[in-house]
Each structure stands twice: as C-alpha cells, then as structure tokens.
C-alpha cells in the first residue's frame, strides 16, 4: 500500500467514525424503541412465517396481522395490568406516608428481636426498601400516564419498526452480512447466537418470572394479603435474584398473615410459595430450554442482571445481546484461530 493509499484509507476511517458518531446521536433517542421492536420481531418471527404461508407470501398482510394480534393479546392485558399496579402502588404509598401501615414494622421487629439479643446494633430497613419499590413503581406509572402523548408516540414507533423488521428483516440481515468481512457462515452463527440468547431470556428467565409473579399474586389474593397485584409484580424483579428469589416477597407475606392472626392463611401461603412458586423454575426450565439450548443459565443470569445495572429496564435484553455476540466471536476464534494438535484428535 502506497503512502497515498494509506492517507486515503486513514481519511476514510475518520469520515466513517464521524458519520457513525453523528448517526448515533440522531438515533440515540429512539434506541429503546428500536431494541424493543427488534426483540419483538425475533420472538414473533415464527408467527409471522406461519401467517405468511396463509397469505401466500404477502409480507405486508402477514406483518399487519401479527401487529394486530400483538395489540390484542399482549398490549391490552399489559395496559390493564399497569392501571391496576398504579392504583395499588398509589394506595400503599399513601398508607405508608400517613403511617397507617404498621404490619411492615411488625415483621421487621419479629425478625430483629432474636438477632438483637446477640447483636444489639443489628437493624433491617425493610420499610425503606419497600417504600423505595413502591415510590419507583408509582412514579414511573404516574409518568407514563401523565405523558400519554409520548407513550403513544413510542408505541406507534415500536409497531412501525416491528412491521418493517418482520416484512424486510431478511433484507436488513443480508445487507449487514454483505458489509461484514467475515465468511457468511460466521455472520449467520453470530445472528443465530444472538437470536437464541434473546429467545432464551424471554422464554426462560422472563416467562418463568412472570409465571412466578402470577402464582404469588394469586396466592396473596387467595390467602388474604392486600395489594396482591402490586406484590406479584415486585416478584418479577425478585425472581431474578439468585438464592433469595421469590422468598423476598413470599416470606414477608407469610409474616404479615401470622402477625394478623391468620394462621391458616400463613401455612397455606408458605406451602404455596415453597412447593409451587419456589419449584416452578425447576419444572419449567427443562421444558422451555430443551436439550438443544446451549445457553447456560448462569450466563443468562449475569447477562440479565448486568444489563439491567448498566442500561436500565431494557438492559435485561441488551445485556444478553452483548454477551451472546461476545460468545459467538469467542466460538469463531476457538474453531478457526487456535491451531489444532493433530496428536490429540
């Protein structure tokens, strides 16, 4: 390469980096919309392919039908649930602020007393913890409701993006593959790994968390713990924590029932939480992942938690996408860059 060619190549890289940075600034406000639409497109692609056969390869019609089904079976229940969560979180927050809720302090005192007999300075700020959760849910729900126009605009952009990702997804993939200097089989492997990780997270981690949250909500409602919908929603976050998991919500519920004199309810909720809620992941995990999945649950766990810590709520999807991309690159390196010892083959 001559000096002139080096200068031209360096100048091109500078222009490319500048264009990429400016494009990021333009698209940055809509990254959450694009990521959410992309994830929905990956998850709903099997449905799209099935409907596409019915409409005889008319992609526009098939994509429109998928969006209508998504609104009916996903968006509408989520909207109704959000309204219920907002109402209950507002009620709990009002009661905590007014000092009318003392059962949390009673639970704390029950836990603290035997420990303080040996460690007098020991204390648990459970009230502050629950108050932060309630305030966070209440504030975010209030923001969504108060900024209806922004929420509707975001939803509209998600569905517009989803429509084109479904309809023209293969064209986008082929264009990205054409830009990559890697062999097509490696590009395919990277995309497959990312899609598999997203599917594993949503079908595995998120789906199981939602099932556990529903079971906790049903148990709380049946055995007499107030605001069952709110605490069921908190269970979705708690279920992501290792070891503690749903016990973080179920145990205080059992304690509340004991302190209010509902012994039958406390025993029933304890059995419900231990046998059904606590073991549901062990029952569903093999069915959901199947033998073909190569994503280790520990990798998924830290990818989800790390993604949430680094990128916020959508990090539970962004984190696994980044980790899956890294794993795919490592596999390509292992299979093609590391010399094989013929003696060990």
Report on the architecture of this protein:
- The structure is a single chain.
- Helix 3 (59-98) packs across helix 6.
- The chain is globular.
- The model has no long low-confidence stretch (mean pLDDT 79).
- The chain has two domains: 26-179, no CATH class; 181-345.
- With 345 residues, the protein is mainly α.
- The two termini are 40 Å apart.
- Helix content is 82%, strand content 0%.
- The longest helix has 40 residues, at 59-98.
- The chain has helices at 3-27, 31-54, 59-98, 103-116, 126-146, 148-179, 184-223, 228-238, 247-259, 263-277, 280-289, 297-311, 315-336.
Low-confidence stretches: none
What quaternary form is this?
single chain
Separation of the first and last Cα atoms? 40 Å
Estimated structural class:
mainly alpha
Which whole number gives the mean pLDDT? 79
Rg is 25 Å
User: N-to-C SSE series?
Assistant: HHHHHHHHHHHHH
Question: What is the overall silhouette?
Answer: globular
């Amino acid at each position: 390469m001559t000096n002139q060619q080096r200068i031209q190549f360096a100048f091109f890289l500078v222009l490319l980096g500048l264009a990429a940075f400016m494009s990021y600034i333009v698209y940055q406000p809509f990254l959450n919309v694009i990521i959410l639409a992309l994830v929905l497109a990956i998850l709903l692609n099997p449905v799209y392919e099935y409907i596409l056969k019915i409409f005889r390869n008319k992609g526009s019609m098939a994509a429109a039908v998928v969006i209508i089904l998504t609104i009916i079976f996903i968006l509408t229940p989520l909207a109704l649930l959000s309204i219920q969560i907002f109402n209950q979180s507002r009620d709990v927050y009002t009661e905590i602020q007014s000092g009318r809720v003392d059962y949390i302090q009673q639970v704390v005192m029950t836990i603290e007393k035997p420990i303080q007999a040996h460690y007098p300075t020991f204390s648990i700020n459970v009230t502050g913890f629950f108050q932060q959760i309630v305030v966070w849910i209440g504030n975010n729900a209030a923001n969504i409701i108060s900024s209806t126009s922004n929420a509707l605009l975001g939803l509209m952009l998600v569905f517009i993006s989803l429509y084109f990702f479904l309809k023209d997804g293969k064209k986008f993939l082929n264009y990205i593959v054409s830009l990559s200097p890697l062999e097509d089989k490696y590009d395919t492997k990277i995309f497959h790994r990312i899609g598999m990780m997203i599917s594993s997270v949503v079908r595995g981690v998120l789906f199981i968390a939602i099932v556990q949250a529903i079971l906790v909500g049903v148990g709380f409602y049946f055995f007499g713990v107030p605001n069952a919908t709110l605490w069921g929603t908190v269970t979705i976050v708690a279920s992501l924590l290792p070891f503690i998991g749903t016990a973080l919500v179920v145990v205080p519920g059992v304690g509340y029932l004991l302190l209010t004199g509902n012994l039958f309810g406390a025993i029933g909720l304890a059995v419900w939480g231990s046998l059904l809620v606590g073991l549901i992941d062990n029952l569903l995990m093999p069915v959901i992942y199947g033998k073909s999945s190569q994503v280790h649950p520990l990798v998924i766990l830290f990818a989800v938690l790390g993604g949430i810590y680094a990128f916020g709520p959508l990090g539970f999807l962004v984190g696994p996408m980044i980790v899956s991309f890294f794993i795919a690159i490592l596999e390509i390196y292992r299979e093609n860059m590391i010399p094989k010892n013929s003696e060990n083959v």
